[in-house]
Amino acid sequence: VTGRLSPRATILVVLLVSALFLLPWVAGKYPVYLAMQILILAVFSLGFNLLLGYTGLLSFGQAGFFAVGAYGCAKILLAVPNLFLGIAGGVAAAGVAAFLLGILSVRHTRIYFSMLTLAFGMMIYSIAWKWRDYTGGDDGLVGIPRAPLEIPGLVTISMAAMEHYYYVVLVLSLAAILAMYRLVRSPLGLTLQAIRDSETRAAFAGVPVQKYRLFAFTIAGLYAGLAGALLPPLENTVTPPIAHWSTSAEPVLATLLGGIHTFSGPIVGAFLFFVIKDVVMRFTEYWLICFGIIVVAMVMGFPSGIMSIFENRKRPVAPPGADRAAKAANSSGKA
Amino acid sequence: MENFAFQGLIGLSLAMYLWLISAGLTIIFGVLRIVNFAHGSLFMVGAYLAYTFYGQMGLPFGVAILLSLVGTGLLGFAMERGFLSRIYGVDEAYQLLLTFGFILILDDAVKIVWGGVFRIPPIPAFLDGAWPMFGRAFPVYNAFVIAVGLIVAVVLWAIFEKTWWGRIVRATASDREMASAIGVNVPRVFSGVFVFGAMLAALGGAIGIPVRVVAPGIGSAMIIQAFIITVIGGLGNLKGAFVSSLIVGVLSAFGTLYFPVFELFFIFVIMAVVLLIRPQGLFAR
């Protein structure tokens, strides 16, 4: 798989990005707000899917790193009103937390990995909930300023208008998406996929499997942290539920909706997540039941997600048996 | 000292709810190799059904519990036969996600059927009152809960160790292909075990209704505790689940009394440490 997009896909991406840049001019406050929520969830889910789709690890603790990013950013903004510092600090804090907990987490795979990340995420939740002096307990942190973006000697941009902040979220999210796109197509990303497909084979080829898993875990934590850090300036508050395991479920749902084996899956999924939520909430407060039905239907019907429908049509399917023949050749070579 | 012993008894009754829900979770994992995220929701449905039969329709408490077990068992049967059994072949991540979908559906479904408010029916007259114990009044109901938990433990032990059915289930758990080869109807065992596990969860939910609240969130709160217990006891290890229910139940009773701020945090620390050092559980042979 090369890094080049097909001409049609390139046009689509250019159109989409231009539309996103024009959005504040053509749409009201609510669509802009919704677009920010979608971008934040897209970044969160992309990081999550680096673990699930590309490395084969299902984490139930990503909300923990999301919360570290959010609380880190909030604490900095409450002390020093500088947006750049706040976001950078939140991301760095989440990265450090993910690296340290990752060292422990990647010692397991499969269900034990999921349980371990659940435990770590809930530890962070209990800190956010119970350490009242520092985190504000169940009241959370309130009155977080949407501080100006200030790079000393260069620029100072006021963030008082939500539209200004929208561009910060947009630029950072697009940068994060581009970086992830490059990453999964780099030798590093391909190695992660090799580990997902066969840990033993990758290890035989001389790949230090755990180091690569730790790398993926840290990057996923950084993405969760970035998503989290973008939230407090938007909402002006952070509360413990963002660290709860039910928040970890949001990127899981978005990724599953869009598809785990497609790069754009988590992004499309984040979009669908908020659009479905928004539409359903107009009719009934019970939007979760609709999500539940969608999840069950997706798992039973299209386990590869919405985007796989387009993937299959584009790519010629290998003749049946080709895969098995390749596997047989490989295993005989190993023996 | 009296206070300490009394709190231990309170912890023991808490441990029994935890035991009932984690017993089903661990049996299902041991045989089907599925971590049923929706197990807490089955606990919740059990509580709501018992509330309907006992609190709303006024049936005797014991009859209400039995009906609740039947209802939840049927729900479990539909979940296993209709959905889970069709995806045993695919990656386990999808099975987790499917049971997660059930949580979303059931959590909202109970809100639609019963409303979002908290409900507590009265304690049945024959279980009301308190016994003086360690200088305090120990509710009869807590003693009842402890008794039910212990009876279930003995019955489960007898079923798995002493009966033909128990041997079939244990054979399927240790090697499903071999069991199938010697003529065990594995799909039927899977369904039976899932329904049985669902009924255990429902029993935990149902006997809790007069003293714990019946509310939409109780399932999600219980499933996390049940995860902690099954992990500490070893996934699929029934004896381990019993011992670690006692540990977690009693520890949280003391924890809420003596160090409420760190209780939740430390329970997750224990879970993580066990996963890292003895992933097979503290009580594995």
What is this entry, summarized?
Chain A has 335 residues and is mainly α.
Overall average residue pLDDT of chain B: 85
The fraction of residues in strands of chain A falls at under 5%
Largest sheet of chain B: 2 strands, antiparallel
Estimated structural class of chain B: mainly alpha
Query: Which sequence of SSEs, written as H and E, runs from N to C of chain B?
Result: HHHHEEHHHHHHH
Radius of gyration of chain A: 21 Å
How much of the polypeptide of chain B forms β-strand, as a percent range? under 5%
What are the low-pLDDT stretches of chain B, counting only 5+ consecutive residues below 50? none
What is the overall shape of chain A? globular
Largest pleated sheet of chain A: 2 strands, antiparallel
Secondary-structure element series of chain A: HHHHHHEEHHHHHHHHH
- Straight-line distance between termini of chain B: 35 Å
Low-confidence stretches of chain A: 312-335
> What is the number of strand segments of chain A?
2
The largest beta-sheet of chain A arranges its strands as 1-2
Question: Which key features would you list for this structure?
Answer:
heterodimer; A: 335 residues; two-stranded antiparallel sheet; disordered C terminus; B: mainly alpha; two-stranded antiparallel ribbon; 11 helices; 2 strands; globular
3D structure, described in words:
The complex is a heterodimer of chains A (335) and B (285). Chain A is an all-alpha fold. Chain A is built from 15 helices and two strands. Chain A has a two-stranded antiparallel sheet with strand order 1-2. By secondary structure, chain B is an all-alpha fold. Chain B is 73% helix and 3% strand. In chain B, strands 1-2 form a two-stranded antiparallel ribbon. Classes of the chains: A mainly alpha (335), B mainly alpha (285).
